């Protein structure tokens, strides 16, 4: 399957057919770059408008009273003029006089946490920087304190992710430089557009987003923030505040809008506490609800954000709904309910899960396409790559995000993994472990680049399954990650192809010309990052550095980064697109790979499928106890 973007993921690329892709290849080679199409289907009319309170008032769970709409929480707020390099840290931590860290929890519970922007050197010495600071000790209310204690986690821990060894620190700085370069070029040539087309020096409107603009801005907010790119973060925030129009009339991919815009805004809110992000995400969440208006509640793939359509339509597979699309809403929708105190979002995704849970599954596997009207599978194609992938990812991450209380998600994940192992996991003649695709019982011996996220997924799931399977799953995760690394290592560019095969003598290589492109995808470095965190085996950092060097060598142009048409080519041709997920994911995962584990610790944060960190919702969080039935068995 070519790609989540091309086939399954309705992304910016928005193309579905191999012929279309060939067309793009031709355009790319002519220097026109990628053009993006979604069929102009009929205008959609919203038939259902939810009436929740958009001001997102949070109820004080202590005395049950309705609180006033809250002002910025004051956690992680950057109001500062920019600094060149920096990390963000809490004032309570900074004010420690003897250079040791104060107890974070204590600082937070006192409601005094705010962030300062400091240089790396100062951070190391624990000196307070006086320029560029934001301190926002907001009026305290039980609501705010409760929200802070329950939901907002310090992203930086004790050392702000600063790696202890100089080489990793240098590498991390290199990633940051790449992010700044990518951002500056986007700003220069494509500001406000969805993505930068570096060769033609303009923007792409990304029709998959139905008229929404600024995808690269929303996708970059959290990356800019965690890298300490304060000026760039401010520009991004101001654009969101002044220019992000969410009630546009086009047809948008529910999936893409959810993972990039909802995920990006949620993350930005949880990291910074800036009210504007909450306001925007709550408005956007409401606009997505008409997609669920089907007889089964399984959403259509396409939604009209302006609410002027009578119906939503199918996405990638005509009238079918795609597993990876309707199965990749859970994390964001649960958080929308958390923020709004409106259960409707959680209800929508719980209904999807309930439906899937009760369906018969061939050999325990989940086919990729389902009819949202009849509620039945449409075909028996199964993939952990395009069309399937992030559904599995969201099962284990739902469990983790629920502070390991969501037992249904856990059961579904481990049962699915068992079926995948039994039916899809293979060993090549050369000893490489890979996850094949399944077409009604017949194996297709190939893996998409997209499927390489599964190394990381299986890795983070390993420690939560039964103790007997733990080591086995960790080994499987390591083996898949190794295979994905081989798909990179076996090319002259040291970047991996979109699809690699294990048939007709191929071993993690791409014999087919139309499967040889690399579009700046993150999945391989994503697995390196997780495997590094889980094992601390230095090879993962080395592999990440190899990928970074290859990106610099082949994908960096004078005007931004671009995907390439053929990873085996000796003459490099560019596809003229700096994908927004390059800024959201690829660079963020590389940055985390070279950071210490206390930057966005995995026990406190779960990354959505676009790498936007969302906080774990603690089981003893008072907000949660208001809705004890959230995870029905
Ligand atoms: C991203 O939009 C997300 O990672 C999605 O889950 C898959 N496709 C791209 C990156 O390849």
From TrEMBL:
Catalytic residues as annotated in Swiss-Prot or TrEMBL: 256 (proton donor), 389, 498 (proton donor), 523
Binding site for Ca(2+): 609
Main EC class the enzyme belongs to: hydrolase
Pfam families given in the database record: Glyco_hydro_47 (PF01532)
Keywords, sorted A to Z: Calcium, Disulfide bond, Glycosidase, Hydrolase, Membrane, Metal-binding, Signal-anchor, Transmembrane, Transmembrane helix
MF annotations from Gene Ontology: calcium ion binding; mannosyl-oligosaccharide 1,2-alpha-mannosidase activity
Localisation per UniProt entry: Endomembrane system
Gene Ontology cellular component list: endoplasmic reticulum; extracellular exosome; Golgi membrane
Ranges annotated as spanning the membrane: 20-38
Family: Belongs to the glycosyl hydrolase 47 family.
Job description of the protein: Involved in the maturation of Asn-linked oligosaccharides. Progressively trim alpha-1,2-linked mannose residues from Man(9)GlcNAc(2) to produce Man(5)GlcNAc(2).
Protein name per the record: alpha-1,2-Mannosidase
